[in-house]
Amino acid sequence: MSKHLLRVENLYKRFGDNEVLKGISFHLDKGETKVIVGPSGTGKSTILNNINMLVPPDEGKIYLEDVEITGAKDIHKLRQHIGFVFQDFGLFNHLSAKGNVMIGLTRVKKMGKKEAEEIAMEELKRVGLENFADQYPAQLSGGQKQRVGIARALAMRPKLILFDEPTSALDPELTGEVLNVMRKLANEGMTMLIVTHEMGFARTVADELIFMEDGVILEQGSPEKLFTNPEHPRTREFLFKLSEIYNEGER
Predict the structure, then answer these.
(1) Which residues are bridge partners to 164 per DSSP?
(2) Which of 30, 70, 179, 250 has its Cα between 20 and 30 A from that of 4?
(3) pLDDT (0 to 100) of residue 1
């Protein structure tokens, strides 16, 4: 039996004539945080969509605790173990923050309303939004919406959470509140696979960085290694440029 919580083996994905993924393989252990970085359009988000089977791969296999996701007959059952935090929040506008967190518990897990409400409040408190439980998405800032999205994922008690550019739709001043929640989750041992351009966050939180370009993994290793002594010149060029942008924004 594999010790890895998640195994991704030789993924290929094509959209028309565009081959987006060209043989992607990596693994993720329980309690680990891995961050995928690279230029836009290189297939980072496609990997997350493949793992959750929102977009099935053309070739390759994905395993969650040795259960093959890519061959699963009941993908909905497996998805209960994989949280997904989207770029655009993905909240239901007609539901309150609490209602958005409860909906997966009541509809997917068939949980009673009282128990679902207790868990929803627990997770809203975890992300610092217990006082906003009755607010609707239109009444929340972008950072608050994204934290509701994180609470919704946490409420399902997932084994793994996927984050797809969780701060890309946020103003700079709201980005920090979301990243702080994610740092807290990493410190608590939540298993996370994150696609982001936030290099300062990646450098301090990731157990491993995966650098992708043109549908392949060019290099992977500890943040210290990739930031200070990368093997591939393209890794050095990309991380240096993004680090410069990050440092400029900190001034």
Answers:
(1) 195
(2) 179
(3) 55
DSSP 91-156: --TTS-HHHHHHHHHHHTS---HHHHHHHHHHHHHHTT-GGGTT--GGGS-HHHHHHHHHHHHHHT
**Six-digit token string for 181:** 């929640």
Angular region, 52: left φ>0, alpha ψ -120 to 50, beta rest: alpha
Specify the pairing of strand 216-221 against strand 208-213: antiparallel
CB-neighbour burial class of residue 238 (10 A; exposed 0-12, middle 13-18, buried 19+): buried
Which residue ranges form the domains of the chain, and what is each CATH number?
1-81+160-168+184-225 (3.40.50.300), 88-157 (no CATH)
Confidence at 244, pLDDT banded by 50, 70, 90:
low
Rounded CA separation 111/223 (Å)? 41
Q: Which residues contact 182 (CB under 8 A, 6 or more apart)?
A: 150, 163, 166, 192, 194, 201, 205
Look up residue 251 and give its two tokens. Answer: 């001034």
Q: In whole angstroms, what is the distance from residue 110 CA to residue 113 CA? A: 9
* 200 bridge partner residues: none
Closest CA to 210 of 23, 7, 33, 14: 33
* Torsion angle of C-alpha atoms 106, 112, 117, 123, degrees rounded to 10: -60
- With the C-alpha atoms ordered 63, 23, 48, 16, is the resulting torsion angle positive or negative? negative
Please tell me whether residue 24 adopts helix, strand or coil conformation: strand
pLDDT tens digit sequence for 209-226:
999 999 999 999 999 999
Mean pLDDT of the chain: 92
